[in-house]
Write a structure and sequence with these properties.
Helix content is 24%, strand content 49%. The chain is built from two helices and four strands; from the N terminus they run E-H-E-E-H-E.
């Protein structure tokens, strides 16, 4: 069973939002088939910091990407998400 490593840029709704809280919300709201590989902060400008979430999803279930997107959009404090990379693992 092949997996996909997907990198998602997550922009907060505004500068100054508690990123630790958003990180916890992301971890707690991931759909069951999605595994969090790592999450890093990416400073943009003027105090705005994006999060880059690297997640592993199963290749066989394309619906899981929609479920992941819906889960991220439901988190208060997230303004925008963008897939910035995908790589097939094994």
């Amino acid at each position: 069973m092949a997996e996909i490593l997907m990198s998602i840029k997550i922009l907060p709704a505004e500068a100054g939002i508690d990123l630790d809280h958003i990180k916890e919300e992301i971890k707690n709201s991931l759909p069951g088939e999605v595994k969090l590989y790592k999450m890093v902060e990416d400073p943009i400008a003027f105090g705005l910091v994006a999060l880059i979430a690297h997640v592993i999803i199963p290749e066989e279930n394309p619906k899981v990407m929609d479920d992941l997107e819906d889960a991220l959009k439901s988190i208060k404090g997230i303004g925008e998400t963008q897939v910035i990379g995908m790589s097939r693992l094994g």
